[in-house]
Write a structure and sequence with these properties.
Length: 377
């Protein structure tokens, strides 16, 4: 039964929980982390890490997409970002770094991003970026917004994209636009020969709707990062991640029964700052996590110590700040696998996931989704 609370006369609201509100319960068995597997697959593509990058220019360049792929994850480049609009992205990043130094104007960074994204998308630039990733041999993934999915996707597929990510702050099965045909995701996905990951969603019903479109994966959340994402302040919309992931996992189970065996992957995007959050997201039912801000600590992250989401560049209603990233820097491999000299869970992110699985006695991700949970409050 849903936990409803009365918030005023005649109005109730559901009590929901974030990742900080839950804890993983150890079981009667433990095992060595050496015999734990973090592998997963989506469609025909296999990965050693349950890691998909949040598609922001702050952490994903063609080079870092390749590096993530070589380390076992999936790097997702933003097909509407800086690499699609500017031939010299290094100059664009330098402008952002200079704007960050303007302490008297806190809006300067977002204004620069808006200006940079006002440049038109150039298919030759994004094609070249995708070519760089494709030639490395890793899986090629690119993100488009619902508004531009129909327009950009044919060219992205010609360039070599193997997994398409249709992502916005909130994505529904049908996106209605003024003066344009609505994007019907079921029809759109049905015409494609590549798997599509779509989101974000925050509840059971919308997750189920997206699963019924034929999506191979559903993104839960909208990349919320404390101090960066401001969707809750701007729109009043928030996603308590633990509850949202569990609801989407329930939709996945019901859809599996409904279709007689079609499994749709759940990707958690947001609310994860440290390795324990990653473990809790998987424990709540996610098949993989979509990480943004935690990867900004990588010394080769293109944001050069800054982090933002794509929503920061919206021309009239930005919903993300451009914020300083972590005050430490390690190479990407160390960030993901250690070793770490930090005791706060910000380095060796997936070594910690393996250890959490081992300490609770589970050998793979699907088993770990059945681990016990408690609520703090």
């Amino acid at each position: 039964m849903r936990d409803l609370v009365e918030i005023g006369m005649g109005r109730t609201a559901r009590r929901a929980y974030d990742l900080d509100d839950v804890e993983i319960v150890p079981s009667r068995r433990t095992r060595s982390s050496a015999v734990v597997s973090t592998a997963w697959k989506i469609d025909a593509y296999n990965f050693e890490l349950p890691l998909v990058t949040h598609p922001t220019d702050a952490i994903v360049s063609p080079g870092t997409a390749v590096a993530v792929g070589e380390l076992g994850g999936l790097g997702v480049i933003n097909a509407e970002g800086l690499w699609a609009r500017h031939a010299n992205v290094e100059d664009a990043m330098f402008r952002l770094v200079r704007a960050a130094e303007d302490v008297d104007d806190p809006t300067a960074l977002v204004r620069v991003l808006q200006e940079l994204h006002a440049a038109p998308i150039r298919l030759d630039l994004i094609t070249e970026a995708i070519k760089t990733i494709r030639e490395s041999g890793v899986t090629v993934a690119a993100r488009v917004s619902p508004q531009h999915a129909a327009e950009l996707t044919p060219d992205l597929l010609k360039a070599g994209v193997e997994i398409l990510v249709v992502q916005g702050t909130i994505v529904s099965a049908e996106h209605v636009q003024r003066d344009a045909e609505p994007l019907n995701l079921k029809e759109f996905i049905g015409r494609l020969d590549v798997p599509v990951i779509a989101g974000g969603v925050g509840d059971y019903r919308t997750a189920m709707h997206l699963m019924r479109t034929g999506a191979a994966g559903v993104i839960v959340g909208h990349g919320y990062t404390p101090g960066v994402t401001s969707t809750d302040r701007v729109l009043g919309i928030g996603v308590p991640m633990a509850t949202a992931i569990i609801d989407a996992a329930a939709a996945r189970r019901d859809y599996l029964d409904e279709t007689g065996g079609r499994y749709v992957h759940v990707l958690a995007d947001g609310g994860m700052s440290v390795s324990g959050d990653i473990a809790k997201a998987i424990a709540c039912g996610a098949d993989a996590v979509m990480l943004g801000a935690p990867l900004a600590a990588a010394s080769d992250a293109p944001g050069q110590g800054l982090y933002w989401t794509a929503a920061a560049a919206h021309p009239s209603l930005p919903r993300s700040r451009v914020a300083a990233g972590p005050d430490y820097a390690v190479d990407l491999k160390t960030l993901l696998f250690g070793p770490s000299s930090d005791a706060e869970g910000v380095v060796n992110l997936f070594g910690a996931l393996r250890r959490a699985m081992a300490k609770t006695g589970y050998s793979d991700l699907k088993e770990f989704q059945r681990v016990g949970l408690t609520v703090r409050r």
